[in-house]
Amino acid sequence: MSFSPELHHWLILSTILFSIGIYGVLTRRNAVGVLMSVELLLNSAAMNFLIFNHYASKPFIDGAIMALFIIAVAAAEAVIAMALFVAIFRSRKTVDVTQINTLKG
Amino acid sequence: MNELANSFAFNNAWLIPALPFFSFLVVGLFIRPVSDKLAGIVATLSVATAAFLSIWLAFDYFSAFPAGAEHPGLISWSFEWLRYEEHLAVNVGVLVDSLSILLMVVVTFVSSLVHLYSIGYMKGEDGYGRYFTYLNLFTFSMLGLVVAPNILQTYVFWELVGVSSFLLIGFYYTKPSAVSASKKAFIVTRFADLFFLIGVLLIAVVGYNAMSMFGAPGSLPDNVSAFDFSYLTSSGVSIMMNNLGLLTPAMILIFIGAAGKSALFPLHIWLPDAMEGPTPVSALIHAATMVVAGVYLVARLFMPFAASGTALLVAGYVGAFTCLFAAVIACTQDDIKRVLAYSTLSQIGYMIFALGVASATETLGYTASLFHLFTHAFFKALLFLGAGAVIHAVHTNNIWNMGGLAKKMPITNITFLIATLAISGVWPFAGFFSKDEIIASAFGTHHYVIFAVGLLVAGITAFYMFRIYIVTFLGKARSEAVNKAHEAPMTMTIPLIILAALSAVAGFVHFGDFVSVGAESGHAEGGFPIWIPALLSGLSGIAIAWFIYAGNSERSKALTERLGAIYRVIYAKFYIDEIYLFVTHKIIFRFISAPIAWFDKRIVDGGVDLTGWMTRRGGAVFSRLQTGQAQTYTTWMVNGVIAVAVLIWIFVS
Amino acid sequence: MGLVSWLFVLPFATAIAVILTPAGMPKMVKKIALAGTSLHLALTAFVTYKFVQVAAFSGDAVKDALITHLYLVEKVPWFESLGIQYFVGLDGISMFMVILTSIVIFTGVLASWTVTERPKEFFALLLILVSGVFGVFVSFDLFLFFLFYEVAVLPMYLLIGIWGTGPKEYSAMKLTMMLMASSALILVGFLALYQGSGKETFDLIEISKVHFPIVFQNWVFPVIFIGFGVIGALYPFHTWSPDGHSSAPTAVSMLHAGVLMKLGGYGALRIGLYLLPEGAQNWALFFMGLTTINIIYGAFAAIKQKDLKFFTAYSSVSHCGFVLFGIVTLNMIGVKGAVIQMFSHGIMTALFFGLIGMVYGRTKTRIVTDMGGLAKVMPWLAVCFYIAGLASLGLPGLAGFIAESHIFLGGFVGNQWADATTMRILTVIATMSIVVTAVYVLRGLANVFQGPLKEQFKTLTDATLTEKISTGILVVTLAIVGMAPWYFIDLIEAAVYPMINRLGLTASNWMVF
Amino acid sequence: MDITLNPADLTHTIAFYTLALTSIVAALIVVTAKRIFRAAVALAVVLICGAGFYILLNYDFIAGVQLLVYVGGIVILIVFAVMLTSSLESIEEPPSLGRKALGLFSSLAFLATAVIAFSETKFPLSSISAEQPKDVAKAVGRKLLDYGAGGYVLPFEVISLLLLASVIGAIVVARNPKRKNEGSAT
Amino acid sequence: MNALAPEIIVAVTGFVVLLADLFLAEKRKHILGPLALVGLVVGGVAVFNLMPQTVEALGGRFVFNPVAGWFKLLFILAGAFTAIFCWQSRAKEKLESDGEFYSVMLFTLVGMMFLISATDLITLYISLELATIPLFALAAWKKGDPLSGEAGLKYVIFGALASGLLLYGLGLLYGLAGSADLQTIRETITASPALWLAAGIITAGIGFKITMVPFHMWAADVYQGAPTTVTAYLSVASKSAGIAFMFQMFFGIFGAQLSEWGWLIAGLATVTMTLGNLVAIVQNNIKRFMAFSAISQAGYIILGFLGPFSESVPSMLYYLFIYVFTNMAVFGVIIYYNDTTGKENIDDYKGLSRTNPVIALVMMLGLFSLAGIPPLSGFVGKFFLFNIAAKAGYHWLVAVAALNSTISLYYYLRIVRQMYMEPPTADAKSLSMSKALAFTFLILTIGVTLFGVIPGIYETINAQTSGWLSALQLFP
Prior knowledge:
The complex is a heteropentamer.
Chain A: H1 7-27, H2 31-54, H3 62-92
Chain B: H1 2-5, H2 8-11, H3 15-34, H4 36-64, E1 74-83, E2 89-96, H5 98-121, H6 128-146, H7 151-169, H8 176-214, H9 229-232, H10 235-243, H11 247-261, H12 270-273, H13 279-288, H14 293-300, H15 302-308, H16 310-330, H17 336-357, H18 364-394, H19 405-408, H20 410-424, H21 430-444, H22 448-473, H23 480-484, H24 490-505, H25 511-514, H26 531-549, H27 554-563, H28 565-571, H29 576-623, H30 630-652
Antiparallel strand pairs in B: 1-2
Chain E: H1 5-23, H2 32-50, E1 55-57, E2 62-64, H3 66-88, H4 98-117, H5 121-139, H6 146-177, H7 182-188, H8 193-210, H9 217-225, H10 228-253, H11 255-258, H12 262-281, H13 286-301, H14 312-341, H15 352-355, H16 357-371, H17 377-391, H18 395-420, H19 435-453, H20 455-471
Antiparallel strand pairs in E: 1-2
């Protein structure tokens, strides 16, 4: 069992990061914390693409391009999320996700 | 057949039932609102012409087929009304044979007399036109019933007769007692008609199956229908049904239907209450015509009844029991019409058990029964019309506040006396001959039990008839209404007189030559002269009645005390009515229809509401899933992903 | 736009005309509705005349036909890719039903002459409902059939909900929900037939040429029969009928009980029996048991009812039980009886509900015990009530008897698939209903019309002209069918022959098409 | 089980494991840190390790972009958001136990499913890294603007629209309502 | 280039509106609405003349086939109706930022149009994100209202997680197939645990977009919180985009496996329909009620995926077409009534038929069409979808679906009851309506009533699109 990182080592790594991201989204009370966990998710997904691209049989670049785009999308998401959190903070004085639950039933 | 071909009466025999129908429509729709008088006249005239026609037909028929010779059933006119299936067509028409002619004559004759009588009796009553319309409807349906060539047409008119009697009994619809009486009559007869219908269906289907397999029996045309009497009464069919074991149950079912209409024992409760209707109605329907429909039916299906044997026996014993049972009750009643009602019950009991004792070979019973039907129609109608005249005069039914009417109403008195003598079986009058033949036929066919009952009842009949006669007509007047009583007007007395004449002379008709079944005519063969004991028991009955009721009435009061409890039970008609009431109201209404109505409301309806409620509950439960927590939502999502992946994995592999 | 299409387009057009009349003239609305429906009566008469001219009633072609032969057919492709077409035509049964509906709607409009609240919407919805019903009776494409079936159900909610009495919203909702749930079952059946036939068409005649496997028929037949049974008041699903009818306004309950409940019987016959003969054979006995309960249950429940409308509703549950009972006897007599019963009960109930509406209009109460002796005050209504009552208990000479005699005889004659003795026992139980019906009919009528007249009813008036015409027509129809039925029966027999002949076919000789 | 250790691999492997360890620990801090600012810093560490990974996978260009855009841009943005929405020191009480358990369960379940899925499936990829185009940056650049068959000019345009729309949306949402009215009032 | 014409036109309209908003004075701002409308109409015309043929552009990266064409028409229609309602709504606090609203909406529209024409993973993902992320902002458009904020927040959290998961799934697909091109992916992937995980994740991504049950949680709160015009846009455009994405995924990639996964689709459809219908019964807020109605409609639409048949695609497109008109009709009334009276509860619709009968009629027809009552178009649409379920042999599912539409009738009738049977409240008054809005309602009512009966529409869709599936060689 050679220790040098094989494909499935990389995949396991990215999946672990992904799962931690999920844990973060599901449990973080602070909205910004949730956003950070989302960034984690996107980052590990981008890594996934690069891993697959790295181990692709043919010389491929699509995975790398996808990674680039993912970063751009993450940026866009972060922008909107931040704007929303600020708007919420202004009207509710809190960004604690668990307290923002007036819409239910 | 050809002799009758050119006889006018035979060719348009259909007019006989049709005339009352047309006059029913004309009077009902047009004349009634216009003028009462005209309605009465038109109605009476139509029935009178029908009577004339039927007598003419009778004359033609019996001249074509002289006495003693074989009397074939000829269909004078028919058209296919309803075609269920190949061998199940119903061709409505007019069958002319000795039985139907007898009935036609009796019905039209008595009906026209009752119509005439009613013109006087009903004068001044509101709904005068309506009364005559119903009377015409009744006559039409009764005639339709007797001329029916097939059993389904009989059933159809059977129901129409039931409805018209319902309408007539409930004529005074403002009187609650009349309303409930009409309801009771209709429902009881309807209950009996149920068994009749099932019997008809059973025979028809067996016949249909047989014919669709083997084709029509040789002797009959191949498009014969399983309903036609010609098919049903053919001997081959009866044998076939018998070995299938269906003949006896079918015949007993039909007999129950007949028992319902003719008010035999268990189903008799409606007849006494039917007296609520106007008296001429009782005279026509509950004396002469409707109640004998049952007898007619059994007579019409005599051959299959005889073939099944047990069915006839059942008829015999039921008839006998009714005869005794009714006679005993009749002795205790105070209302004059109730007494006559029970006496009708008892006389019909006679006719039924006369048929019961007869058999395929011994047809004397058959002839005797129809002869009694013939004579009974006249004197019973007379008795009722007489009673009607009396009631009309003193405005009460209770015999105890009548008395001494003989002087006030001579004609009614005499005619009533003739009828009483006739019914008691005193020699020259009609009753003697017909009742004697019945008792003879019972004796002749060794049914000694029935014979004994017949003999005893002859005495009892005489007793209660004379009790009535003595109490109403003789003795002192017991109420001042009697003093004001005066003789009934002309239109009422004429029918009385005619009927009295007939009840006197009818006995001498050699009935056997005209009406009989099977080959030879029914004549009482020699042997022990049965009429002697019959006459003796009748006279002894008169004597006892004379002894108790003539002169002062203490003796009758003393008699009632001594009998005490027994008297009360008989007077209360053995509480049969109360039993029926108990059964219908308590059991059917409370224990069947109420629970069903409740069950329907609560369980079935509840079931539907429950499903509605459950969906709403489901909605509320699921809506609570939306907790408002964004993170619960995301957890649902992730778990959803895992679930879908795992599910695919499980299912696909 | 052929003749038959006009049958359902005319009421729809009248509905539009009613909606477009200016708001301020309620009188005009009623006149237009009446004109529309009377025009429809004329149209139906003309269509019947044409139908009778062209239709063959006797002869071998009719006797051993295996496919329903349609007349005055209009067929236009609609959604070609799915095999849906606008396929409209007439055969004996549809003709009979069209006549019934036309009469009932005409008398219905006449009977609702006293509607004052929002008459425009009332008459419009009523006419839309009836055009749906006409549509069902003349359409022979499953899609079109289903479309018209549901069009007929929806206006019912608004009609009962807005113009009804008593717990009107509850009953309107319950009625609509149960009928829509039943249409869900029917939809499953139709789509199964469409897929099962493998012919890529919704055309009833084409599908009828296909022999569905026994297993398929065994589950599709009950689905369709129960689907249609719900609107035909089959036993456990009848609970909408008492509530629905008692809170519906007169014309609506006339139309609903008189005609809409016949859709159930018609559908079960046209789709269930005709397309799935083997399925029918296997299920016949079960449903016969159910319908027998239907008959007896409805009759006994009616005895206890105090409210006239409940009383008639339960009686129509019992009479509709006869219709379904007739169908599952699976022989010519029984099925013919079922169709006649559909017609006769339709007329009878329309007459009953019309009269109840008129009596209620006067005495303002429907409770039987409160009323009494009304015959003296309103003789015409009393006579008509009695005729309707006597017809419903099957008095010969009126339509009821013809239908019931057919059905009882059919039950007795039986068929070669069901065990004869059980069928006969069930038929005997069903026959008992004529006694129970007599009991509740007479009790009801006696309480209302006979007996001493109560003080407050002294001043009531008898039927007005419009009421006389509407009740008159219905009574005359009952009498005509009752006394001279042979003409109608030929009309039906020719249409029922194919259904019965198909029952005889087995898988092997199905290839005859 | 031959363990072939040549010097290039050795450094490669060691770098991989150290980076992996640090990034996992930093990720855990991100999701569990009480103080939100500390989480932001941890996020930066994770992203930097990510860039390290890209280098290991010899995608230096992407690593560069990651460092510049992700760490430089987005993390700074997040820090701004943290400052705007709550004071630096504000302690955030931990999530309720139930939510933590549920979150843990879901994430571990996902991890387990994913790992099992990987171990079961045979990816059609060679286990050893294929030879990579020498200059990643040039290849990516050319691909992005290539109108031809394999080109990605379309997403390039679409991403621009996305960023524009997000920015507009963000401005509208986050605009301070008071100032806007005064502006228009004059 | 002309293949991209529609997208370019709409994008340019977006920019034009944005710039016009910048330069126009306050009082002239009301022409922004018509401006956006004109752009959309021109875009629609562009789609129409492209319609029947299949055109490729950008070396195969962008394909315009009839299915894509009909989807674009759907999006444009949805966008146009939303624009009209936004333009016509005289809400008291007028959406000051109308200009931005139109442009952001148009950009999302472009995103949806690219989504359906994409042939590779990257374009697919990016256009999906373009079609989703700006919606987070749209949901939170009403600044003053905290509910709108909350809606935006929930939408962001849920949406971000969904896009993260989706990315992971697409990564797996990329790994399995070794290429980003959908065509090659479809041909190379074989059944493997990773694929099933990817399928699970992608179902989640789709589920989020079209509000399928396990992934529908966000819908109720966001629909209620967001401004009504946005809710309308979400319920129609976003759902159609989700279906377009599902087309790409379930027909585009998992086409081969789809016939085996019939049970999954059936299961999801049943749960979605039933839960959507059941919860809708107990709702009081009309927008939240429409959310659950939308969820149940999603349940009906995915019936189309049961076994790829030639009728599947045309039936779904036809249903979506009718769904746009029906839902927009109902939302139009809700927006109009909400704007003028500010009332959002079902009980506030008391006696509407008395005060303003026209709106009540439009609302009633819309609701009945949603419930699937003939002869309205909703019924015909549903009938064809149920037909597909029956064709796939899921008769029990047809029964469940039909019973569900009966339950749906129950809660639609609740509203009809309020409008027609309850007496109007005291303060109810008849509301005036601008000509443009009246004209829109007219078109919507025509759509609701006549589209079902006129066979032309379904036949043209069927003629053009039934070939698409066979082109993918999916049929066994």
